[in-house]
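User: Show me a protein chain along with its predicted structure.
Assistant: Here is one chain, sequence first, then C-alpha cells.
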Amino acid sequence: MPQFARVLLSGLGWAPERFPRKMVAPSENVAPFKLGEHDETARASTGALVLNDGTVFNGYGIGAVGRQIGEVCFVTAMTGYQETLTDPSFAGQIVAFTFPHVGIVGVNPEDLEQISPAARGVIVRMNPTDPSNFRAVEHLDSWLKKNQLIGLAGLDTRKLTRRIRDGGAPSGVIIHSSSEAPDTNSAILEAREWPGLEGMDLTKEVTCKKPYIWDQTLWKLGDGYGKMASPKRKIVAIDYGAKHNILRHLADRESAVHVVPATTSANDILALQPDGIFLSNGPGDPAATAKYTTPIIQDLIRSGIPIFGICLGHQLLATALGAKTAKMSIGHRGANQPVKDLGTQKVEITSQNHGFAVQSDSLPPGIVESHISLFDGSNEGIRVEDKKIFSVQYHPEASPGPHDSGYLFDRFIRMIDGNA
C-alpha cells in the first residue's frame, strides 16, 4: 500500500494488524464477464427465473445449485447487499438488485444482520467480480454456496424491475442447474400454485428460539464492534426478525437489551421489569402474525411502558391499536426512500423493506399519522396521543442506508428517561 494511503487510513482509525492484506480467491465456478456478454444469450444458460405469468428470464447460476420459490422483489440500494441478504425481513422473497455491480466489495463476517441469509434467492445483472475492498475475506459466490443460497446472473434486471413495477411483485421460481438446461415448464406450474406472502406468517421462522441479552455496540473503523458494559436502562426487544444493527443502536445508547421470542407473553415481558419495549422488524403478512401478537401488545400498551416499533413492529403495533394493514403492489425496498415527518415538515431519506402497509384511513381516534411516503403517500409512522408510544415503517438503523433517521432511537431513549 502506498505510504500516503497508509497515513490517510491510519488517521481514520485503520490498523493493518486489524485488516491484514488478504487475497480473496476467485470463485472457481464463475467465469468473468467480457464486454458485450451481458445478455442471456451470451453463453449456455445454467439458470432461470420463472414467473407465475409464464415469463422466463434465462441466465446462469451462481451460488448454490437447486431451485427455490418465493415472491420476487427488487432492491434499489447501491450498497449493503450483504446486509440485505441477511435481513430477516426478506424471508420468503427472491431479491433482485437494480444496481448492476453486486459483489464488488466481497463478504466479511462483520456485516451480517443475522447469521444466515433470510432471502430465498438473489438476482444480479453482472457476475460477481473478485472483491476489491480491504475488509473482504470471501467472494460473494463462495459465500452464497456456503449458505445454500441460489443466485442468478446475466438477467436483464431493468426489464425485470419494470415488470415488477408495472404488474406488482410476482411469485417466481429461481433455478440453478449444474449440468443441463433448467426445467422451466414445471417451474411455471409451481409458481402459479404458490399462495404468495399474503396471509403468510413468517415471523416464527426467523424469531429467536429463546431469550438472550445483547450488549454489542456500533462498529467503528479500526476498532470493530464495542461492548456496552454499564447500562443505564433496560429495554426488552421483541424479536419478529430483528436486524443486529438495530439492537446495536439500542446498546450503543447505554441500554441493556433483553431479546425475547415473538410469542413471549406480556406477563413474561413485564416480569423482566423493562424501562422500554421495542418491537422489531420482520417478514410476512402482519395480519397473519397479529393473530397471536395483538393480545400481547395490547397488554404492553396498558402497562404504560414506552414502546417503539419499526417495520413489522410498526404494523403489529398499529393493528393492536385498531388499524388495518394491506398488501402493497410492489412495496418499498431500498436505501433511497423519501419520507416526510408531518410534525417537523422535514424530509428524511430512509432505508426500507416492506410489502405491506398500515392503511392511513383505518387509524382510530387518538392515533396520529406522523410520517408519510413521498413516493406514494402511504403511511410511514404513527404516534399515540398522550402516551409514550410511536413507530415507523422504515429502518432507521442505516444497515444499509443513510443516517437521516437515527434520531428516532434518541427519541425513544428520551421517552424512557422521562425527557420527552
